[in-house]
User: Which sequence fits this backbone?
């Protein structure tokens, strides 16, 4: 067997895109001595073929001879006066290499055979590079320690691709005789992330059984009982001291978020909080489901891989909902540290926010685009407290037939794992994500990083939908956190299950049975198949090159039995596994922070303030990100994320038509404002609900069909103050859902978002609640966008402006926080939403934009520049509360439940009649001259700016390369 | 031909097959989406179709290079069947990734017969955008070829591109000249007034603003933009500014193809 080595690189005259990107990243590290970077792809192929065939492989297959050159063997450093540093990045043994798999297949298509294929990337850095800089570049720019190995120079050998086979050795763990301290130590040593009470519960179980647990049993319990899978905190009972008043919840989630859904009892909610995603009715034949997940900890370690598998993972939620849904739209919301942070301000063990942002965006882009699912909605927030704990929310909406919303697995069904193979990647992801991050995490938890391959997921999806429609399986769920352990454990909860772990197809040899059982390797689903359908379903999967393997069966003994090569390696009672976890009671405290309103001297002109807000990172255009996402694949896009005359205005919400022969649409929006949470998390949560709802109403979706999702991302909730703020937010979720008549249908929490720095200090994220909303559009032809349409049309504001600058961007740019956080008058807000909907449906409105960050002034500016026109406004027309008298307050207050709308003069009467008794007022007119002019009562133009200048200020900050 | 039949190819990573099927249905064709494995098993099935369509996506993850692995499969397993398909006067359409596949099989620009020349000598390729990144944006297309049956001469189209590798490059300037002289250029990127220009008018930096190619028969078209993404009025990015206009530019490509088959086959 011979090992062939080929290097393929861009020919001179053709851009080396990878090399240029690396050079940019190196400069961002502050290293100026590297003059240029050349990249090459390296192929290492073990094969028996001769030199002539090898040349065909490299010329016909591996090289694009129009724009690339190849080298057979190992090329030496380039000649010339420049110092050259050569760095090769290889995948660690066992890490999936999708390109290698494709190359092996293509060689077979050519009539050859390759024993093994590996690929690597080679970089040549020209210019002086010190050893320290070289290591820094390798570590921060070129390679990810978790999955890759760096080889320097031209002589060093890459890592061996071969792994040792595994020989069975059943491990038992002495637990029954340990004292409390010993139990804690055991939990810590094995990364179980279980506390002493949980360990004692397990101990009692085994004392009764009169034996010690095996390793795989203990791991199964740790996965199932993890915060990530079990939501222990949100389901705990709470005793809260709320400003001296005692509040008690038996089960926080059940009495807040769930309760609203139960009390509202909407008949269009088909399956809520029961499956992998919440399901609501769409039309006579189909339903839609929606799920938003977080993938925070993995994205902190490996932004690209973490975000990619974040989207890959959440896609499997709809795919595993009911009998499986077809994903139709993605939404992504991120929170990062400020991208202009200096390197020396970054704590040890933390990646630079810019690197995290670029990696996360690229990960979502590559996975979502490759899966062919449009990414249509999202948001990005910046705050330095997210620096060590970036938040990555990935969401997906799926479409499934009405008669396929429920599973029906039965005793005797075969358990099949389909899709990707199982490897050592992602071990302990569920438990890892439940704990606090530290500066050492990078090293310790490298195995928790998962590796994604969207094409495997795409072909699995294509095949599963065919199998679903042919009714070849009885139930389906995804392998997410906890891997097979969670998937099989959940599916067999009421039945019992037995699994032969050696049957699970592996990426490489050497995994022990516990690793197989808890691996979080991506792109796998579990289905329950009746034995008589096995042949048909196996044939179907084989026809599309998707692996599907029987690994066990569902029983009727209410036990989970694990075997390896016929020997039992673990057995647990399903009831203990799922119900055995002790109930928690937690303390929570909420005390209003000492906050006050600042005094900022009034001015005659607020142009500079408006420009500063428009170019603040949270408000600025996210076009750089949005354009990298395919937001139009599947052909259903109606309201795109960017809109207006030049396709660059910021849409309030997205609308897609999931069925191409129908004009019925699904709308998706989100709301979030962590800055308000610093003043009062109750109003933060309420504001997020209001924002998500007004965003979705603004494009024309039905206010009476809004379904909500909650994603709580908090710090360490064992601290009563932190938990107290979460309880406040949960209370607002109940009140908001009831007030708007919008039930929650699914949710997820990610707690412990704190980072322990090497100096012993901790950084906690601000309390962050993402509210996602989904609703129905009866006829997409009635939708409206936010760009003004025509000079001469009238501009109205609907909704009351109050003196609510607390947590506003106006205060933020002046360095203040304030106290008057925006509140919600829910009765008026709900009535406003419903009248707005009527106005849109009857065609009375030609554009509509919600008022949010930056207030009225920002909304007007965005509408004007998106429409390529000007607006002349007069604040005398603004419906205002008596205490909102200053120009700054009227321009920049972020009061909720407000819409700015454009009405044709002909429609004035109808519109005014419809809005009777609502707070609304005519603010101004659309004009041809591209100026935004806003006057106060005495005629002073407090804003008088060129619309193009405003647009430039808004577009520039995040136009990265 | 009364009933026109189109075959839309599926493969691992192809992801625009459903909307492409929909567009051909709207144009009046009967459409089957078929996995490439089935076609390789029974190449004779192509006899039953008049339009062969490679839709967009990331076939086999675009591993090695965009469209390369699928192109390799087609060269080694379907060369004869496809040569016959084209020789029979039938139509081939490749959109985005499908265009990349057509170029990498050398079906486009068709200077040498498919599988009949050394694939290491392909005259044209499609490579990374000058911007270095994937982008989804709308562009204007000026029809160039007067022979290509998919094109309505003189009708400028507004369509989205969504790709990271869309720059059409020739092996040398002689080949680029030949593409122009022999009428292989199907579409060029232009602005709203029909003028060529730099990014973003030309979204990927293609020399001569080439957006699509046709072969010498005019019955094979490959293009980077996505006509199947504009077959309904609400797909236009500012449809809310276009009051009651129902025209959808992308439909012309599909309607022309179906009309041609009806009249000529």
Assistant:
């Amino acid at each position: 067997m011979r090992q062939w080595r080929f290097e393929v690189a861009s020919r001179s005259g053709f851009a080396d895109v990878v090399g240029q990107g690396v050079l940019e990243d190196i400069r961002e590290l502050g290293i100026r001595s590297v003059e240029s970077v050349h990249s090459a792809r390296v192929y290492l192929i073990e094969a028996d073929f001769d030199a002539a065939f090898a040349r065909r492989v490299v010329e016909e297959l591996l090289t694009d001879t129009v724009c690339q050159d190849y080298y057979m063997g190992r090329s030496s450093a380039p000649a010339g006066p420049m110092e050259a540093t050569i760095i090769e990045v290889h995948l660690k043994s066992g890490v999936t290499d999708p390109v290698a798999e494709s190359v092996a297949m293509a060689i077979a298509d050519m009539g050859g055979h390759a024993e093994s294929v590996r690929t690597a990337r080679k970089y040549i850095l020209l210019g002086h590079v010190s050893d320290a800089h070289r290591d820094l570049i390798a570590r921060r720019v070129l390679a990810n320690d978790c999955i890759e190995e760096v080889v320097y120079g031209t002589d060093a050998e890459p890592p061996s691709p071969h792994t040792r086979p595994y020989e069975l050795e059943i491990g038992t763990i002495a637990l029954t005789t340990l004292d409390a301290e010993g139990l804690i130590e055991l939990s810590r040593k094995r990364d179980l992330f279980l506390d002493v009470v949980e360990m004692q519960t397990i101990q009692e179980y085994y004392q009764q059984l009169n034996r010690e647990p095996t390793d795989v049993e203990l791991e199964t319990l740790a996965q199932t009982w993890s915060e990530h899978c079990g939501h222990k905190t949100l389901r705990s009972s709470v005793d809260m001291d709320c400003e001296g008043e005692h509040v008690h919840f038996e089960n926080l989630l059940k009495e807040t978020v769930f309760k609203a859904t139960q009390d509202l009892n909407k008949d269009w909610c088909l399956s809520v909080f029961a499956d992998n995603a919440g399901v609501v009715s769409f039309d006579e034949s189909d339903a839609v489901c929606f799920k938003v997940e977080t993938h925070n900890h993995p994205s902190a370690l490996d932004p690209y891989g973490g975000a990619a598998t974040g989207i890959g993972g959440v896609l499997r939620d709809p795919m595993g909902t009911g009998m499986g849904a077809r994903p139709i739209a993605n939404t992504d919301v991120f929170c990062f540290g400020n991208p202009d942070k200096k390197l020396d301000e970054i704590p040890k063990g933390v990646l630079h926010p810019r690197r995290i942002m670029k990696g996360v965006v690229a990960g979502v882009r590559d996975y979502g685009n490759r899966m062919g699912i449009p990414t249509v909605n999202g948001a990005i927030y910046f705050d330095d407290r997210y620096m060590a704990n970036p938040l990555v929310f990935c969401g997906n909406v799926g479409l499934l037939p009405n008669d396929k919303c429920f599973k029906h697995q039965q005793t005797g069904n075969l358990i099949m794992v389909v899709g990707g193979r199982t490897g050592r990647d992602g071990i302990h992801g569920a438990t890892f994500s439940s704990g606090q991050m530290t500066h050492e995490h990078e090293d310790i938890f490298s195995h928790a990083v998962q590796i994604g391959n969207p094409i495997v997921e795409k072909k699995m999806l294509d095949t599963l939908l065919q199998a679903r429609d042919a009714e070849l399986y009885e139930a389906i769920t995804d392998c997410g956190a906890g891997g097979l352990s969670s998937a099989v454990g959940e599916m067999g909860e009421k039945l019992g299950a037995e699994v032969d772990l050696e049957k699970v197809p592996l990426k490489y040899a050497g995994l022990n049975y516990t690793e197989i059982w808890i691996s979080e390797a991506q792109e796998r689903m579990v289905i329950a198949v009746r034995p008589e359908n096995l042949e048909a379903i196996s044939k179907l999967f084989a026809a599309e090159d998707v692996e599907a393997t029987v690994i066990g069966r569902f029983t009727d003994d209410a036990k989970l039995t694990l075997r390896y090569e016929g020997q039992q390696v673990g057995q647990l009672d399903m009831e203990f596994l799922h119900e055995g976890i002790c109930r928690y009671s937690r303390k929570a405290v909420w005390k209003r922070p000492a906050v006050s309103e600042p005094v900022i001297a009034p001015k005659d002109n607020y142009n500079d303030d408006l420009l500063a807000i428009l170019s603040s990172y949270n408000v600025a255009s996210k076009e750089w990100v949005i354009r990298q996402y395919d937001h139009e694949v599947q052909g259903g896009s109606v309201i795109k994320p960017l809109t207006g005359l030049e396709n660059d205005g910021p849409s309030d919400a997205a609308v897609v038509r999931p069925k191409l022969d129908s004009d019925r649409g699904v709308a998706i929006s989100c709301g979030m404002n962590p800055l308000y949470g610093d003043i009062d998390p109750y109003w933060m949560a309420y504001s997020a609900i209001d924002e998500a709802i007004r965003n979705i109403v603004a494009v024309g979706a039905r206010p009476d069909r809004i379904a909500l999702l909650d994603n709580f991302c908090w710090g360490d909730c064992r601290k009563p103050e932190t938990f107290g703020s979460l309880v406040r937010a949960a209370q607002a979720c109940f009140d908001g859902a009831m007030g708007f008549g919008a039930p929650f249908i699914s949710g997820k929490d990610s707690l412990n978002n704190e980072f322990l720095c090497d100096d012993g200090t901790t950084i906690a994220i601000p309390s962050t609640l993402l509210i996602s909303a989904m609703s129905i559009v009866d006829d997409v032809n009635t939708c409206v966008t936010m760009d003004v349409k025509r000079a001469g049309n009238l501009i109205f504001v609907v909704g009351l402006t109050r003196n609510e600058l607390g947590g506003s961007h106006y205060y933020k740019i002046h360095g203040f926080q304030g106290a008057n956080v925006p509140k919600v008058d829910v009765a008026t807000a709900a009535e406003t939403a419903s009248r707005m909907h009527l106005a849109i449906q009857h065609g009375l409105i030609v554009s509509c934009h919600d008022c949010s960050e930056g207030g009225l002034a920002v909304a007007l500016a965005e509408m004007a520049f998106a429409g390529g026109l000007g607006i002349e406004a007069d604040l005398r027309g603004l419906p205002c509360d008596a205490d909102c008298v200053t120009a700054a307050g009227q321009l920049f207050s972020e009061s909720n439940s407000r819409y700015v709308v454009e009405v044709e003069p002909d429609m004035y009467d109808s519109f005014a009649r419809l809005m009777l008794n609502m707070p609304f007022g005519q603010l101004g007119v659309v004009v041809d001259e591209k100026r935004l002019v806003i006057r106060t009562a005495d005629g002073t133009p407090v804003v008088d700016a060129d619309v193009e200048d405003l647009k430039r200020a808004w577009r520039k900050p995040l136009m990265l390369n | 031909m009364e009933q026109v039949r189109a075959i839309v190819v599926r493969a691992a990573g192809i992801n625009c097959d459903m909307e492409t099927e929909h567009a051909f249905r709207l144009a009046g064709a009967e459409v089957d989406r078929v996995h490439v494995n089935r076609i390789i098993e029974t190449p004779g099935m192509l006899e039953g179709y008049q339009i062969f369509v490679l839709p967009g996506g990331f076939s086999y993850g675009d591993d090695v290079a965009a469209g390369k692995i699928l192109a390799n499969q087609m060269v080694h397993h379907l060369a004869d069947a496809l040569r016959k398909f084209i020789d029979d006067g039938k139509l081939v359409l490749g959109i985005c990734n499908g265009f990349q596949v057509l170029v990498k099989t050398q079906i486009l620009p068709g200077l040498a017969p498919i599988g009949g020349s050394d694939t290491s000598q392909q005259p044209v390729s499609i490579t990374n955008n000058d911007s270095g990144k994937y982008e989804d944006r709308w562009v204007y297309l000026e029809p160039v070829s007067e022979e290509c049956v998919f094109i309505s001469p003189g009708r400028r189209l507004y369509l989205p591109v969504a790709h990271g590798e869309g720059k059409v490059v020739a092996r040398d300037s002689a080949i680029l000249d030949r593409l122009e002289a022999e009428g292989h250029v199907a579409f060029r990127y232009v602005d709203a007034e029909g003028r060529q220009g730099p990014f973003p008018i030309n979204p990927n930096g293609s020399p001569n603003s080439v957006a699509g190619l046709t072969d010498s028969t005019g019955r094979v078209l490959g293009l980077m933009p996505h006509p199947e993404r504009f077959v309904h009025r609400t797909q236009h990015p500012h449809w809310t500014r276009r009051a009651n206009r129902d025209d959808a530019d992308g439909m012309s490509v599909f309607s022309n193809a179906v009309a041609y088959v009806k009249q000529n086959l």
